[in-house]
Amino acid sequence: MPRTYQSSSSDKAGTFFSATLVLWFVSILFEIVFNKRRELLYVVAGGCFYQIANWVIRVRVSRDPLFVNTSVSLLHSTITSTSVVFILVNQWLRTGFKRMFDHTQLVEGTWPWAYQALCFSCGYFAYDQWDMLHYHLYSGIIPAILMHHLILLICFTLALYRHVTINYLILTLICELHSIFLHVRKVRRMVGVRDAKSKVVKVEWVLNWIMFVLARIISHVLITVKLIKDASKFEKGVEWPLAMFGMVGMNLLNAFLGIDLFNAFKREKKPQQNNQKRRE
Fold it and tell me: Where would I find the TLC domain in this sequence (predicted)?
């Protein structure tokens, strides 16, 4: 769903999501200060890093909140996808393909740098939630983008607190490979590059579709199949239902995203077709 400006004197949605963000931040601080969970400082570091990136882009490039937000999102997708690929390749070389996807490894284990990467990404979602709330970059009674971030913050934070399913969550972040091209498209259009006949635009769309299929559809379906296959191996509790619910939600979001992407592709091609008809 595209992010748009919304002005309202009584923004109930904004108040609710602001309150949940404050509660989340208090929870993180409590764990760090009172429970001595120093490893969670990576969450704070992630949030601070992306906020600093926001300030730099705002000062050096543009003061448009939507452009700045999208640019930082592009930065996050690039850093996260690079980190995930590095973590997966590193683990593959260390243990082999089959062993790294063992149920115990995915649920109870933590690959090198996986915890830190998840913390850093969690910090980004907190920053992004704050930025969208601050500049009203959302719309609707129940803004989908804010709800998406809230759910991710809850899932990521619970996993980080309990040190479970870290590797599963890292696998889900493979979708950031596709998010790179989603954000590139938004930035490209905001700076005025909209010629569908341009080679750059054509290549971007090809990569966009390839990454959508590989990094979102195939990867998330495989994760879902793995969860179903290993359902009996999970201990009784909330881990499997939460994981399954999350993956079903992700697959549904991917389906809706695919529809939106196809519609955007058609809209971008339409002006080109209209211009050709006028010439004829």
Answer: 62-279
Collapse the DSSP code of 196 into the 3-class scheme (helix H, G, I; strand E, B; otherwise coil) and give the result.
coil
Mean pLDDT of 232-252: 86
Residues 6+ apart with CB under 8 A from 252: none
Determine the 3-state secondary structure of 137 from DSSP.
strand
The Cα–Cα gap between 47 and 131 comes to 11
Burial class (CB in 10 A: 0-12, 13-18, 19+), 221: middle
pLDDT level of residue 219 (50, 70, 90 thresholds): very high
Closest C-alpha to 185, from 81, 70, 269 = 70
Model confidence at 10: pLDDT above 50? no
Most confident of 31-35, 194-198, 249-253: 31-35
**Mean pLDDT, rounded, of the chain:** 90
DSSP lists the bridge partners of residue 5 as: 137
| C-alpha span between 145 and 215 (Å, rounded) | 20
Cite the DSSP H helix spans in the chain.
12-33, 41-60, 65-95, 97-100, 103-107, 114-135, 144-162, 166-172, 176-190, 199-211, 219-229, 239-279
Give the other-Cβ count within 10 Å of 64's Cβ. Answer: 14
pLDDT digit string, tens, across residues 70-89: 999 999 999 999 999 999 99
Query: Two tokens at 247?
Result: 């993956």
Other Cβ atoms closer than 10 A to 111: 20
pTM (two decimals): 0.90
Q: What is the pLDDT of residue 2?
A: 45
Q: Which of 36, 37, 70 is nearest to 54 (CA)?
A: 70
Rounded distance, CA 273 to CA 269, Å?
6
Closest of 57, 52, 55 to residue 187, by C-alpha = 57
